[in-house]
């Protein structure tokens, strides 16, 4: 089975977590795209969707799924999104698509975060995937110096501007022994908008697609 087929399996299983008549939070990336395509089959049974990126909003709209502005929404029963890495505690590295700020905002109001991944994303320890950090452009050099002090090697994502008009630093070589502590430390650097560490608010459910089927991890 290809990686894309695995991603699609996890994504389609996530449709079972969508509550009929309610709004669903939708993530960003190739796995989330499979979810959006599946969601189209039940679009008349949901109130609508909140998107975590312009790309996902376009794909949802292309399927005729009603889009709601995050500011109109007080709470969400469920948020469905992929990850770049996820560990046993369901802490994640996200932001491979540079959308982690909006992803974190939507995840913050969701009651249940369902992470959909192929098996390659499950790791013992976070950090092989460079940690994406969204930064205000004028703070790039200063934030980079602070990240070096934390033991990282920040690399500017070339030619990439986030949906919020900011830059992404991909930080290599970080020792992520304490994901929640590092998330707090990085988010506290002036000029950082959002780190791609999702540890304080990790996933509640992981649907991990393997060659032997989709495994469900549920800590909700
Ligand atoms: C985007 C993300 C994605 O969830 C993450 O990059 C995984 O992407 P994919 O599903 O394409 O493997 O955090 O910012």
Structural write-up:
By secondary structure, the protein is α/β, with parallel strands linked by helices. 27% of the residues lie in helices and 27% in strands. It has helices spanning 3-13, 30-39, 54-62, 100-109, 140-149, 179-187; strands at residues 23-26, 48-51, 76-81, 85-86, 92-93, 110-118, 131-135, 153-156, 167-172, 192-195, 197-198, 205-210, 213-218. A six-stranded mixed beta sheet has the order 2-1-3-6-12-13. The protein has a four-stranded antiparallel beta sheet with strand order 8-9-7-10. Helix 2 links the parallel strand 1 and strand 2. Helix 1 (3-13) packs across helix 2. The radius of gyration is 17 Å and the shape is globular. Ribulose-5-phosphate is lined by residues 27-31, 81-84, 94-100, 103. Residues 27-31, 81-84, 94-100, 103 line the site of ribulose-5-phosphate.
What does this entry show, briefly?
By secondary structure, the protein is of the alpha/beta class. It is built from six helices and 13 strands.
Reconstruct the topology from this structure.
Elements lengths: L2 H11 L9 E4 L3 H10 L8 E4 L2 H9 L13 E6 L3 E2 L5 E2 L6 H10 E9 L12 E5 L4 H10 L3 E4 L10 E6 L6 H9 L4 E4 L1 E2 L6 E6 L2 E6 L2
Helix pairs in contact: 1-2
The structure holds ribulose-5-phosphate (5RP).
């Amino acid at each position: 089975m290809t990686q894309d087929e695995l991603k699609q399996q996890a994504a389609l299983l996530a449709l079972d977590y969508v509550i009929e008549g309610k709004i669903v939070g939708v993530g960003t990336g190739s796995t989330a795209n499979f979810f959006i395509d599946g969601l189209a089959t039940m679009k008349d049974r949901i109130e609508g969707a909140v998107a975590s990126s312009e790309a996902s909003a376009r794909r949802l709209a292309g399927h005729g799924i009603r889009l709601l502005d995050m500011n109109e929404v007080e709470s969400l029963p469920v948020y469905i999104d992929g990850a770049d890495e996820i560990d046993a505690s369901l802490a994640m590295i996200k932001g491979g698509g540079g959308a982690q700020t909006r992803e974190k905002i939507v995840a913050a109001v969701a009651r249940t975060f369902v992470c959909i991944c192929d098996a390659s994303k499950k790791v013992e320890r976070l950090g092989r995937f460079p940690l994406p950090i969204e930064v205000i452009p004028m703070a790039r050099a200063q934030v980079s110096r602070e990240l070096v002090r934390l033991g990282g090697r920040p690399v500017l994502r070339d030619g990439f501007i986030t949906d919020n008009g900011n830059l992404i630093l991909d930080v290599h070589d970080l020792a992520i022994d304490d994901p929640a502590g590092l998330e707090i430390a990085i988010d506290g650097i002036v000029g950082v908008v959002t780190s791609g560490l999702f540890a304080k608010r990790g996933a509640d459910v992981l649907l991990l697609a393997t060659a032997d089927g989709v495994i469900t991890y549920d800590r909700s």
